[in-house]
Write a structure and sequence with these properties.
9 helices; 9 strands; globular; 6-stranded parallel β-sheet; binds ligand BJW; 3-stranded antiparallel β-sheet; alpha/beta; 32% helix
Length: 240
């Protein structure tokens, strides 16, 4: 299969998947890079329902610290470029992020899904309601809906079903371009989206600092920082 590096034909329907790499230049650590360990824990060891049942204090603190850190970071040029694409692209568009930060939201993206949940939402284990949440869950687990002290972060942990899979699968089946930005391709089902899109006839493009685990599945790949690659690609799409 020939790999392309140049401009692509103008698409009518685009699905974009983003991962931790798009927020790295805003100062949000990635999961599997050199800063990927949190106090000696791998994400696979704290982001599970079993870890939460065994040691809720550690898991709640992990998410409380990350939620508080959102106040210290800002969207970067890559988030802003995707928000511009959302505002100006007249075709079908869906931005699916694995990220639980709010940087796409703050940049202004609207056609956006958080498939792994959001740091700024709580999920009540008693009544099942998801609600906006600010502050520390370690000191406040009380649900505003049912009153039970049963809040957990509204985050999709390993072994749990990501959000909006039906909608994502439909969008992948109907798109003519799938673009993956800043993700290692290590976590499923997101890592399999490129194969779904290809099987349905879409062109596929990887924009990542380095080749991802799934890079061979993409027809085209560009490697470098998202803050450079993403604005350049958005200019190409909007410029026709
Ligand atoms: C830059 C950059 C710059 C840096 N510019 N780029 C065995 C085989 C296959 C699957 C499984 C298996 N055993 C279990 C599974 C399933 C499991 C899974 O995939 N496990 C793997 C570890 C193998 N998946 C699940 O359990 C999921 N649920 C599920 O499968 O349900 C069943 C189902 C069945 C059928 C259909 C659908 C579902 C749930 C997964 C939940 C993931 N949750 C986490 C943590 C929660 C959120 C949080 O705490 O923040 O989500 S894990 C963590 O990894 C987080 C991320 O969203 C996710 C992906 O990481 P990401 O974004 O790719 O980050 P990195 O750090 O890995 O990569 C960053 C990349 O950016 C790198 O490539 C850098 O080079 C690059 N980069 N700087 C551009 N400036």
């Amino acid at each position: 299969m020939a790999r392309q590096t140049g401009a692509m034909p103008r698409p009518a329907s685009i699905v974009i998947l983003t991962g931790a790499g798009i927020s790295a230049e805003s100062g949000v650590p990635t999961f599997r890079g050199p800063d990927g360990l949190w106090e000696g824990h791998r994400v696979e060891d704290v982001a599970t329902p079993e870890a939460f049942a065994r040691d809720p204090h550690t898991v709640l603190r992990f998410y409380d610290l990350r939620r508080a850190a959102l106040a210290t970071v800002e969207p970067n040029a890559a988030h802003r470029a995707l928000a511009r694409l959302d505002a100006e692209f007249e075709g079908e568009l869906l931005l699916v992020t694995q990220n639980v930060d709010d940087l796409h939201d703050r940049a202004g993206s609207r056609r956006l899904l958080h498939m792994h949940g959001e740091l700024k939402r709580s999920l009540c284990a008693a009544c099942g309601e998801s609600r906006p949440f600010e502050g520390d869950m370690l000191t406040n687990r009380s649900c505003r809906g049912c009153g039970a002290s049963a809040l957990r972060p509204d985050i999709v942990w390993f072994g749990e079903m990501p959000y909006e899979m039906d909608r994502i699968e439909r969008a992948l089946a109907g798109c003519d371009l799938f673009v993956s930005i800043g993700t290692s391709g290590a976590v499923y089902p997101a890592a399999g989206f490129v194969r779904t899109a290809r099987a349905c006839g879409a062109a596929t493009l990887e924009l990542n600092l380095e080749p991802s685990a799934g890079t061979a599945w993409f027809y085209a790949a560009r490697h470098g920082p998202a803050s450079v690659l993403v604005p350049a690609w958005v200019d190409e799409v909007l410029g026709g």
